[in-house]
Amino acid sequence: MCSVVFLLRAFHKAAIKELAWATSQLSHFKPQLKKDQLLSPLKWLLASLSFSLTGYWPCHMSLYGGGGDPRAARSGPLDAKEEEKAPVEPTAQVPDAGGCASEENEVLREKHEAVDHSSQREENEERVSAQKENSLQQNNEDENKVAEKPDWEAEKTTESRNERHLNGTDTSFSLEDLFQLLSSQPENSLEGISLGDIPLPGSISDGMNSSAHYHVNFSQAISQDVNLHEAILLCPNNTFRRNPTRTSQSQEPFLQLNSHTTNPEQTLPGTNSTGFLSPVDNHMRNLTSQDLLYDLDVNIFDEINLMSLATEDDFDPIDVSQLFDEPDSDSGLSLDSSHNSTSVTKSNSSHCVCEGATGYCTDHESSSHHDLEGAVGGDYPEPSKLCHMDHSDSGFHGDLTFQHIFHNHTYHLQPSAPESTSEPFSWPGRSQKIRSRYLEDTDRNLSRDERRAKALHIPFSVDEIVGMPVDSFNSMLSRYYLTDLQVSLIRDIRRRGKNKVAAQNCRKRKLDIILNLENDVCNLQAKKETLKRERTQCNKAINIMKQKLHDLYHDVFSRLRDDEGRPVNPNHYALQCTHDGSVLLVPKELGASGHKKETQKGKRK
DNA sequence: AAAAACTGTCATGTC
DNA sequence: TTGACATGACAGTTT
Q1: Which of A63, A83, A253, A341 is the most buried (most CB within 10 A)?
Q2: Can you give the C-alpha Rg of chain A in angstroms?
Q3: Is the pLDDT of residue A588 over 50?
C-alpha cells in the first residue's frame, strides 16, 4: 500500500512536469496540430493525477470519448467491435480487469522503480533548469541530458518520439490552452476533479504564469500513461481482498478499464512495450511477474479452487477415490493426503491453454475467455448463478476474483483442446515452479473437507454448507442434482463444521468459566484480606474500649463512698446499669447470686 | 524429545 | 423425529 501511495505521488509529480514539458515542447515543433489530438492523452494524464489526488480512479469512458486520438479510442474500455464479440454477462467481463492483475502488479513494481528514476531525474533537471535563463538554452540542456541518460532510457525516448512523429500524434499548444479546453468540455470533464482542485506544483503554476516552457520527455508521459494505467487498474486492491460487501457495481471500474489496460502495446501501435526496456528490465519484469504471481493472496487461490470445481465437468473418479481414502471419514469417504497434490492439480486445471508468458491479456483474449466460460459447465449450476440465488455474501462472490486470477494465466483459448485432458492448463516456463509452489501452499491451506468437497466437485463452499440456515441448506440440496455421495459428504461437512464451531464455543465458554473462576478466587482472596484487616481494627477498637471502661470503672469507684464514708472496694462491689439508665452499686456476692441489693448510691452517668 | 496447549472429531445427551 | 447445540473424550498437531 505504501508503495502504491509512493508510486502515485511520484508519478503525480513526474506526470505534471512531463505534461507541462510536453505541451511546451510540442508547441515548438507542431503548432499546427489540433488541440483535440492532444486532449485525450492529456486528459488521461490528468485523470491519472486525479486518482492520486482523490484516492480513487475515475475510470469512466468519458475520459476517452472526447479526443480524436486513435490511441485514446483504442484505450477505451471496450471497442465497439470487442463489445459485440464479448458476451454481455457482467461477471464474465470482470476477469479481464483482474485477469492481468499479477502482470499489473509486476508493472506496478516496475513502474514504481521507473517513476523513482523519473522523479529523481526530473528533480535534477528542475534544479539545472532553474539556472537557465531562456527556454532555448533549457531545451539544449535537456537534449544534452537525454544524451546523458542510460542507453535504455535514451532509446526509449527516441523511439517514442519517432513513434509520435510517425503516428502524427505530436500536438502542440500551451498548457493554458489545454486546461481551458479541458475545463470547457463538460462532457469530458474529469470526474471528481477540476483544474482548480489539482494542486499543481510550483513549477507548473509558475510555468503557466510565466509561460516558461518545461522540457520533459513526452514519450515518457505516454509510456507512463500505459504503465500507470495498469498500475491504477491494480489499485483497487480489493481485487485481492475478499470483500463481502463487494457488489457488481464495485466491479464496474474493472469492466471499464480492462480493455484499455490489458495490452499496453496497443497504446503505442507497432511498438513492443518490452522494447523500451533493457534486458535487465525485462529480466526484472520476469522476476517480479513470477514473484508477484506467487505472492497472490492464498485466499484468492482458494476461491479459484472452489470456482474451478464449480465450473468443471471433467470429473475424474480416480481423483475422488484417491482423495477419499481416509479411514476416519463418514460417508465411506476418506482422504489420502499423499494424493492431494495431484488431485488439486487436476482440480485446478482449466480449459484454457497459456501461450507464452507474455503476461498481457488482450481484448481478444478476454473475449476468448468469455467463450471459454460459455463453453464450460457441467451438471452443476454455475457458481455465479449460485451467487445470485441465496448466498450473495458467501464465498461465491469470489468467483469474480477467481475469474480475475484465472484469466491472469489464461492467454489464448484453444477450443479444440479436449476437455478431458488431465492438464489442459499449461503453465508456461518457470511458471511451472510457481504453480507447484502455489499448489503446495493452497493444498496445505485447504482443510480436509475442502479437499473432499473439491474432489467430489461439490458446487458449494464449506463455509456455505456450514453457515447457511437449515431451510436454505435443504432447498439447496433439493435444487441441485447431487449424488448420494455428494449429499452425504455435504451433510458430514455441515455436521462437522457445526460441531467444530460448537466445540470452539464450548472451549471458549469453558475457558471463560475458568477465567471467571480465577477472577472470583482473586476477588475472594482480596475480600478475605480486607476482612482480616477489618477484624484486626475491630479488635484494636475493642481493646481500646475495654481499657476505657476499665479506667472509667476505677474512676467511678474511687469516688464512691459507703454509708460510713469509706471508699468502696471494687473487689466487693460492682456497678450495674438498669433499664432506665440508672447505675446501681451492687455487692458482687449478691450480684453473683442474682439478688439485687439496692442502695441509694445510684449515680447517673 | 517431552510436555503442554490447541484443534478437530466423534459419541452422547438435552432441548 | 429431526436438527441444533453442548460437552466429555480421544487423537493428532502445534507450540
Answers
A1: A63
A2: 42
A3: yes
Closest CA to the C1' of C11: that residue is: A328
Residue among A393, A394, A389, A402 at smallest CA distance from A480: A389
A445-512 falls under which CATH superfamily? Transcription factor, Skn-1-like, DNA-binding domain (1.10.880.10)
Q: Model-level pTM greater than 0.70?
A: no
Residue A167, pLDDT above cutoff 70: no
Residues belonging to chain A:
605
The secondary structure of A548-596 as a DSSP string is HHHHHHHHHHHH-B-TTSPBPPTTTEEEEE-TTS-EEEEEHHHHHHT--
Burial class (CB in 10 A: 0-12, 13-18, 19+), A192: middle
CA distance A309 to A540: 82
Helices of type H across A314-419: 317-323, 340-348, 363-375, 383-387, 398-408
Q: For residues A111 and A118, what is the distance between their CA atoms, to the nearest angstrom?
A: 10
Q: Report the C-alpha gap between A217 and A20 in whole angstroms.
A: 10
How many angstroms separate the Cα of A317 from the Cα of each of A46, A346, A352, A455? 56, 12, 22, 9
A503 touches strand B (CB under 7 A): yes
**How far is the CA of A243 from the CAs of A231, A237, A240, A258, A308, in angstroms?**
20, 10, 9, 20, 20
Q: Which nucleotide is nearest to A509 (CA to C1')?
A: C6
DSSP string, A450-497: HHHHHHTT-SS-HHHHHHS-HHHHHHHHHHS---HHHHHHHHHHHHHH
In angstroms, what CA-CA distances link A131 with A139, A209, A446, A456? 13, 18, 63, 73
Smallest Cα–Cα separation from A449: which of A402, A374, A499?
A499
The answer to whether A311 touches A381, Cβ cutoff 8 Å, is no
As a whole number of angstroms, the distance between CA A604 and CA A313 comes to: 110
Q: Please state, in angstroms and rounded to a whole number, the distance separating the CA atoms of residues A174 and A207.
A: 10
**Does the CB of A449 sit below 7 A from strand B?**
yes
Beta bridge partners of A151: none
Distance, in Å, from the CA atom of A33 to the CA atom of A64, rounded to the nearest integer, reads 19
At residue A578, the pLDDT reads 87
pLDDT, position A472: 84
10 Å CB burial of residue A537 (0-12, 13-18, 19+) is exposed
Which nucleotide is closest to the Cα of A504 by its C1'?
A: B7
